[in-house]
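S1.2 Input.
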Amino acid sequence: MAELLERLLKLDLEPRVRAEVLAQVGDAYNRAGRQPQALEPFAQTAEAARENGWSDLLVAAALRRWGQSPFRASRDHSVRPLLDEALALESEIEPATYARLLVKRAAFNLFAGDLVERDEVSAQALELVGESRTPERLEVLEARWMAIACPATVFRLDALDAEIHELRKELGVLTTDACAPEISLYWQGNGAELDEISVQLWDDPRQRREVDQWRMAALSGMTALFQGSYELARSETDRALPLGREPWGEAGQVVHGLVHLLIDVIEERPAESLERWRSVAEMVPSDAMRATQAWVEALAGDAEIANGLLDRIRPRFSRLPENFIGGFGLVGFAEAAVVLDRSDLFDDILAVLDPLSDRMMGHPWAPSFAAGDVAARISERRGDTKAAKRQRAVAAELYQKLGAPALLERMDH
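S1.3 Output.
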């Protein structure tokens, strides 16, 4: 479809018609899971809209350039200012359209923005869009889910998951790339429902784009990992990497690195992940990635680098569970502290970890250990056997619910 529309652009079109066709080209690329190719058509749409005072097209370009999820725009630094430019047109647009812009601006910060702000802004957008059972409400619900989704808010996602599921069914809409129920199910260790969703995805004939194939390969790798089929888990994860390269960019590489790291840790050969994680942390310079690198450096024996990373992250580590993928970084930070015997960090880590003991960290596309698992390790180091027993029991229950004997075996090892 995109190629057909691009042929129209070779005709002598009126400026307004040309801008509208450019937006349609971008839409076609987004629907095909080829988001990077959508960026330039939307940039041209926005430029034409500025030159001619077409506020509706500027808004359309901002909403569409965001794509179907903030992951897919993570490499495009023009998204945030374009959304802000469109939001400045509040007096010229309908409340529902303003709500869509507002919530997507909040969701774009899911990796690093303040959780309270993301929550407040996305709640405001949901109120603006109203209660009608419309595609606009579904769009805002999904973006609100993305804006607040993190280990710290998992039980608040239940109501959103339920309404999103019902509204998708009413409207005949397939899941988006990022607002995926399997993530909140994983955080709560709901293995049976997670398996059911995986089967539904495999059987759905609409799952044909590369980004859909990536999702299924990632879930297959997770299942194999939990069952202890590490060779299969690695091969499925490797199969996913090229499928995710175009739509996900560095995000796909992070997921690939996280799965391999988990297997390397279980198999007690962390040096395998050392160069990969130095590269990932440089490519995606966030606290979550640096904390995970600290874990690998500590396991590989470079205490100086590992300690330096922990000290660098320490002022902000309590915010890791408020980040979409920050739970994995929290586990990495805590595990590194155990390896390095950083007793000066134990109390602060437990203050964050213990309330999260009843949930998994990471998510299915990038699985991690339960919070209670690493919390128990720290409690044992502190000599608090009662707390360690409680935390281990909670983690074991999660692993059992999840259907993850390999993680149970590691914990008992």
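S1.4 Remarks. The two ends are 54 Å apart (CA to CA).
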